[in-house]
Give the backbone structure.
Amino acid sequence: MIFTRETPDLPTAADALPGREHRWFALSPRHQVLDAPVETDDMPEGHEVAIFGLGCFWGAEEVFWQVPGVWSTSVGYAGGHTPHPSYEEVCTGRTGHTEAVRIVFDPAVVSFGELVRVFFEVHDPTQGMRQGNDRGTQYRSAIYWTTPGQRHTAVAMTDLYGQVLAAKGFDPITTELRAADEITYYYAEDYHQQYLVKVPHGYRCHAKTGVAFPERARSIAEVGIDRPARYGKQLTSHLGRKFGGEWDEETGRGSITFGSGSATLLASEDLLRFELDSAATATGMLEDVLARHLARFVGDRDGAQSPQVAWVRAPK
């Protein structure tokens, strides 16, 4: 990789290199490791795309192509301004792009949360515009989500891991969190694709924190709404049919048992309280399920109410 020493700043769109209108190189049609194409505009039904920046993309891609459930990987440039940049242009720091890995995966085999866990554990998300000795805006940490569910998972897991790191004396997480539809992913030149297959003893940079992602987490939210017991019962009944759950009319208390966690619902005069205990990689997804269904039920019955669900999380 190319090393720089200065403290880098992201360029504005006006200051970024102009780039070019079209990609000027061809890519190999097949992945060097996985039985899949490198370019994945078309992918199997039900698969999802995840895009991560975690420093040098050579070693980062190698990590993810080994994860069961990953169908294809590629490396490229994302999050910046310059269209169709070259590797040399990205390394100047004047494109705004970070080196990124694009992952196509089967969520029935590996969850997005599990990919995020791997992402956090194989690099140091507190280092800003660098990873170890690699310095520059192109080495910044980033998650570009492609679905609303991915967004909730990324936000929740960043919050949880930040708490774990802070307790061990690390600086705050600097990972850039953005929607993928706000950026463009440009495939890197062909020689970068599956580079460490082509050059087995090539450069790898994983400036890890050495801190494991927590196994479980607890989330709490209190929602001020009219008739909280009604909605607590409706939510428990609806989700309970799929996952398992029950509501106690006398105590105004319900429980829902998910495959990766459990939720307790407590209704008072004007509050519905959620207490969620779950696998840490599933926290954001389950928070989203509860909040989304509550908003739907409240909207169906009383369009004037728009419940705001703010979660307070802690690793266990």
Summary: The CA atoms of residues 236 and 245 lie 6 Å apart. The chain is about 25% helix and 25% strand.
